[in-house]
Amino acid sequence: MNEPVTASGPAADDEAPSRDAHPFRDPALPVGERVGDLLGRLTPEERLGLLHQYQAPVDRLGLRAFRTGTEALHGLAWLGPATVFPQAVGLASTWNPDLVTQVGAATGDEVLAFHHKDPGGAGRNVWAPVVNPLRDPRWGRNEEGYSEDPWLTGVMGTAYARGLRGDHDVLKTAPTLKHFLAYNNETDRYVTSSSVPPRVLHEYELRAFRPAIESGAAVAVMPSYNLVNGRPAHLSPLIGAELRTWTDDDVLVVSDAHAPANLVGPQNYHHDLPEAYAHAVKAGLDSFTQDDADAAATLGHIRTALDRGLLSERDIDAAARRVLAVRVRLGEFDPATPYDGITQDVVNGPGHRALAREAARQSITLLKNDGILPLAAPKTVAVIGPLSDVLLEDWYSGTLPYQVTARTALGGRCRTVYCEGVDRVALRAADGYLQATDDPAGGPLSVGPVRSAFDVFDWGGGAYAFRAAANGRHVSAGDDGVLVNDQPGPSGWEVRQTFRMEDRPGGMVLRNISTGHYVSVAGGVATVAEDPEAATVFAVELIESGAVRAAEAAAAADVAVVVVGDHPLVNGRETEDRTDLRLPRQQESMVRAVHAANPSTVLVVSSGYPFAVTWADEHVPAIVWSSHGGQEYGNALADVLFGDEDPGGRLTQTWYRSAVDLPDLLDYDIIGTDSTYLYFLGTPLYPFGHGLSYARFAYSDLVLSAPEVGPAETLTVRVTVTNTGGRAGEEVVQVYTHQRRSRVKQPLRQLRGFRKVRLGPGESRTVAVDVPVADLAFWDVTRGRFVVEDAPHKVLVGRSSRDVELSASFTVKGERIPPREVVGRSIEAADHDEYDGIVLCDAAPEAGDAVRSAEPGAWIVFRDADLTGVPSRCALAAAGAQGGILTLRLDDPLSGDVIGTVAVPPTPTRHDFAGLGTPLAGAAGVRDLYVVFENEGLVVSALEFRP
Q: For bias kind Basic and acidic residues, which ranges apply (predicted)?
């Protein structure tokens, strides 16, 4: 049995005459002083207990239990009915930070209302917002983020967090940024490593996180499940080296759920949990979200780490201090806070319902319009599609208190005809039909002579859901393996209601996606079996075609409004990425049939991610997109379709024509792969920033505050915008810049600011956007810092990243980057300029990056290396399980002059670097220096050229 940890601070004050007199309860004192006082009164065991998600009460000091982690991504989640706002990507599409702050504030109020009702059930440390840039639209959690642009992500994340934290020194809630760092894939997320070069790290990934921390809007951060450059994100040295340098306040770092244990398995980064947990604490992790509410095992491993000398009491105190700092700032120990009067009356109150409607309205984005919108008083509207009469909750959504669907809202304005547009089928086996009970509660599926009907929902990616017509409930694989029709739809963390249809001779078999098991009929009862040979072959008999019925409905109406999109829990969600960008096949077929029957078709896409709706863009007269818009979605959609309101949304990420336009999902180097609107060379379906208004706008009189600016100055961009249309409308004036000459590859365009303006017919307004010149800096790998380069630039102003109305030139009087100094100094291999066949990896468990060859002939290059000192020898640190050869070449990796060759002996591990060297011949002048890895699996951490 472990002995209690011995105290290093002041002894616990058990004999204090009055707990209220303790300095930690005095709100007039500085936070640090209060935290120090409280920390000193806790026993070592009590301090240790603060390092778990569930912190025990300390009765003798009057400390209540405390828990980190309440989900509040776009409204309070998981705790019962509460106001549901549009998904995060939809909130960002409003391009209205003030509105996003209002949504955050409303969410914070509802968190407090639930907390006051049930302090143990609703904690005030909220796990939101998500500020991972939306690098790839196939990411399963795309709907949780804000934008592919890191600056816009920072703006929107800060806005939402600011609303959550409140306007007082005392925090309303304690917002937590997710997920640090370089996390955009669900596929193998526990074991994949994001290879992030220095420029991508500093210019893209870190840039999205910094604003909310630096401004004080967010006070905590959650690391991600993945590895970054070969090291688990929960052990990242960037927590201390970067994140905690952005503010003087204590930043709390909480683990993702069950992530600490992953450090041993499946990541195999440490031998056992005490060693892993010690490394995590020393890296900066303060709170372990592990083993659910049972803290015993986690704390036991940390005690063992202390006993082994892997941790010190100082390490525990540092983590405990940061935990207590948040609790003090939340006003937990104050006699009163500004939020004590918040009650359940605010939850889904009139103000929040109105805000949900306005947020949904401003998020709706008009992608195409040939003039059919706004609708001109149609007598009959056909409301069609699998999403036309339902609102769907995503995993981090709140529980909808009510639903205003497209069908409901449009039906309140005119006569409607409705068609869900899905196929109805029967499934015939050799012994009869698959049958479902009509009991409202559902029951086991069986096989018999009666032909039962099932509605088939195609959610894309080969995922289908079956709804029994007998009782309107979805088919699910129960925990006992029996198929039952008892679910309202795909739901839960482990979605048991989706199946793949795999072809077999004579028909098809059904494979449950969650279990991987096959539907099998034995003894008349339908179950799922692991053995593929036990699968029952079904013939699919079409009873009613969804496309045909949808076309009939469309033909009977003046206008058809077709609502399609994704199910937030199927084919793209946490743990599951998409593989393509296409609409589900059956949805696409239905859209084509509707348009053929009635050319006056409006396509409405409701989704948490972009789709490649290329056919619709060519044929359908109007296309509208929004994220899943929350409880007021239908009202907001009707407001826009009928022209009561202008479509206020603009895209915050590129809509590509095909997944062919994208690199490998696991390739995080947006610069090297020409990814996102910043570097994409192709023609997108809809560009970043795109969105139409019902009004028309003209741009004029672009004026820059100066033709030449220095690094410490601010460039002010002014432009006049005029509504030249006949109705009021909203325009998002977007300001981009492009650096026209540089030592390095620069973005084709980069958002620097925007203004959202509402103008009446004929109204003009001059808007101004300030661009701090320091924001034009990029990461200089030759010197390891940001640099504002001496170069000409261009300002691009317009309504999207590709729809530029006006431009102007200016010059930045910045630095001229000299040739890279290499002689007599150590060069980190990761600080190369370009590469091929290379991945970044960890140079050591604690810190440092290295490069590893993923294939023979891989190389890295150091451009403009200054060899004028005529080095005679190169020393380098290299490793490799099989060993191999490194070749140093000048100017070309294949045919350049060889100036040295290094033989790398086999090493025990990738962290066991051998100190090697080679004499140099012909190394002189300013040249491009290539290190060529002749073998796969070679690792280089650093090299040095010596005179």
A: 16-25
Please list, residue by residue across 578-596, b when 16 or more beta carbons sit within 10 angstroms of its beta carbon and e when fewer do: beebbbbebbbbbbbbbbe
- Whether the CB-CB separation of 925 and 820 falls below 8 Å is answered with no
Residue 241 has pLDDT above 90, yes or no: yes
Q: At what angle do helices 546-555 and 585-597 cross, to 10 degrees?
A: 30
Beta bridge partners of 942: 828, 877
18 confidence band (pLDDT: 50, 70, 90): low
Do 285 and 147 belong to one domain?
yes
The answer on pLDDT for 20 being more than 80 is: no
893 alpha-carbon distance from chain centroid: 37
As given in the structure block, the two tokens for residue 785 are 């810092």
CA–CA gap between residue 20 and residue 737 (Å, rounded): 57
C-alpha 520/C-alpha 564 separation (Å) is 32
Whether pLDDT at 10 is above 60: no
Q: How many CB atoms lie within 10 A of CB 261?
A: 19
Task: Please write the tens of the pLDDT for every residue from 829-853.
Answer: 999 999 999 999 999 999 999 999 9
Q: Which of 256, 566, 780, 833 is catalytic?
A: 256
* Distance, CA of 213 to CA of 239 (rounded, Å): 12
Tokens representing residue 778 in the block: 């990029």
Question: Is 785 exposed, middle or buried, given 0-12, 13-18 or 19+ CB atoms closer than 10 A?
Answer: exposed
Q: Is residue 148 domain-shared with residue 176, that is, in the same domain?
A: yes
Global pTM?
0.96
d(CA 178, CA 213): 12
**d(Cα 114, Cα 123) in Å, to the nearest integer?**
9
CA distance 916 to 391: 63
d(CA 432, CA 448): 5
In a shared domain, residues 44 and 160: yes
- List the CATH number of the domain containing 931: 2.60.120.260
The whole-angstrom separation of Cα 628 and Cα 600 is 24
Contact 327, 26 (CB under 8 A): no
Look up the domain containing 187 and give its range: 27-329
Give me the pLDDT at residue 621, please. 98
CB 912 within 8 A of CB 880: no
Q: How many domains is the chain built from? A: 5
Q: How far apart are CA 403 and CA 635, in angstroms?
A: 10
Torsion of CA 398, 403, 406, 409, to 10 degrees: -140
Nearest Cα residue to 943 out of 839, 845, 844, 865: 865
Query: Given strand 697-704, what is the order of strands in its sheet?
Result: 697-704, 714-723, 764-772
Contact between 228 and 179 under an 8 Å Cβ cutoff? The reply is: no
340-365 exposure pattern, b = at least 16 Cβ within 10 A, e = fewer: eebeeebbbbeebbebbbbbbbbbbb
Give the pLDDT confidence of 579-631 residue by residue, as tens digits. Answer: 999 999 999 999 999 999 999 999 999 999 999 999 999 999 999 999 999 99
For the record, the structure tokens of 889 come out as: 């070449």
* pLDDT at 12 (0 to 100): 40
Q: Return d(Cα 929, Cα 830) in angstroms, integer.
A: 14
The mean pLDDT value of the chain amounts to 96
Report the C-alpha gap between 804 and 849 in whole angstroms.
40
Distances (CA, A) of 725 to 159, 167, 478, 761, 913: 32, 40, 58, 6, 68
Quick one: CA dihedral 313, 315, 319, 324, positive or negative?
positive
Residue 19 lies in a domain: no
DSSP class of residue 204 equals I
Task: Give the pair of three-digit tokens for residue 541.
Answer: 């008999």
Half-sphere exposure of 245 (CA within 13 A, CB side): 7
Q: Please report, for the domain that includes residue 571, its CATH number.
A: 3.40.50.1700
464 and 364 belong to one structural domain: no
Q: Which of 57, 74, 80, 223 is nearest to 159 (CA)?
A: 74
Instruction: Look up 136 and say whether it is catalytic.
Output: no
Question: What's the pLDDT score for residue 414?
Answer: 97
